[in-house]
Amino acid sequence: MTDNSIIASMPFGVLQLNMRDAWPIIQGLPDFDTSLPGHVLEQNSVCALVNASIVQSSNAAASVLTGRSPDDRAVPIAAVLPVESHRKFVDALWNLMDENTDISFEVTLQHPSGTEVHALANLWRLPGPQWAGDVYLGLTNITPRVTREASKENLQSELAHASRISLLGEMTASIAHEINQPLTSVVTNAEAGLRWLRREEPDLSEVSSILERIVNSGNRAADIITTMKAMARNGKSHRISLHINDIVDEAVLILRSELSRRQVGLRLELSADLPPVPIDRTQILQVVVNLALNAAQAMADGQAWNRTLKIRTRQDGLGFVAVDVEDSGPGVDPKVRDRLFESFYTTKDSGVGIGLSICRSIVEAHEGSIELESSPHLGARFGVRLPLAPSARTEPNP
């Protein structure tokens, strides 16, 4: 037994759950094994458990969070928690049976007023030999924290978008030239194809070859436009598993004309068979393009005689993929090195000082890191490390 007056006075919500009907369901599961995580259960078993876990009592704080009266008893926890949290609850219940003590998960409650309440849920039970008794579900309101984090994320997204638009603005002439090249090729090849068709004996083999070149040029122009649209779009971060070499290839597609205009040679050292990384494609593309463009500008502005940009990918130790962007420019002035990643600090006359700051924020949001190595007159190297998905963290290839 527990002192109900203590629960009633607690500053966070507490629901006492009667589990006597849930216990036979658990015992009757064919694959019942407390060492297995709850997510192995079929959906019908999850539904049965959340409907058999009955709210026996709740304190005033719980009523404020859920919008239910303390007298509203004998309802299943399925009626209190949203559907998307039912499996989380069952997972927590499974861990509780396995004698784990630190059991928590986040839920979003739909208050009858129409507002959403973000809560941290904790599950526990009183010590004793009989598991079939009551368990307690604590609910702590974390809406202010979630709101602050969402506001920070939105601000970060807006700044990253502004940085991308600024980046695209700087490269407008190069982008126009890059798109114009395949379009010119389309027109030239189409005219040649017409000439082959108008001959007394049309050469269909030559026309077929020309049509293939037209298709390739059209696809190239479409790829450039698609990449530009993605860079200009201001959407929420969406991470999927991608190969970092594909991101580098996209960056090269954007930068090729700009590098040519600045008379900068490009050297790629892309490791084969790198495992994919869970990233936001547009954001990491922005990082690579920004670092490469900064390197090209540094070499042009510094009057480097050997202007070579090197982009290298590799697996960095256990659990990381790295992208190195290295130039042969004058290096970074030690006086400004410590401030390069500060917001609104820039060494360019026309810069706004958010490019490198945004790059670092994006990489750190991916739980990665970015570092700078530089020597006077020997160039600079920016190294980006991105973590692999946990399932892909195996020993790197020699």
Radius of gyration in whole Å, from Cα? 30 Å
* Helix run count: 12
State the separation between the terminal residues, measured CA to CA.
60 Å
Percent range of helical residues = 40-55%
Order of helices and strands: HEHHEHEHEEEHHHEHEEHEEHHEE
CATH architecture of the largest domain: 2-Layer Sandwich
CATH class assignment of the largest domain = Alpha Beta
CATH topology of the largest domain: Heat Shock Protein 90
Rounded mean pLDDT score: 78
Largest sheet entry: 6 strands, antiparallel
- Beta-strand content bin: 15-25%
Shape: elongated
Give the neighbour order of strands across the main sheet: 3-2-1-6-5-4
Structural class given helices, strands, pairing?
A: alpha+beta
Total domains = 2
The CATH superfamily of the largest domain is: Histidine kinase-like ATPase, C-terminal domain
How many distinct beta strands?
13
User: Which residue ranges are poorly predicted, with pLDDT under 50 across at least 5 consecutive positions?
Assistant: 349-353
Question: Could you explain how this protein is built, in words?
Answer:
Helices cover 45% and strands 20% of the residues. The chain has twelve helices and 13 strands. The strands form three sheets. The chain has a six-stranded antiparallel beta sheet. The chain has a five-stranded mixed beta sheet with strand order 8-10-11-13-12. Strands 7-9 form a two-stranded antiparallel ribbon. The chain folds into two domains: 4-141, Beta-Lactamase (2-Layer Sandwich), CATH 3.30.450; 149-392, 2-Layer Sandwich (Heat Shock Protein 90). Helix 7 runs antiparallel to helix 8 and helix 10 (281-301) packs antiparallel against helix 12.
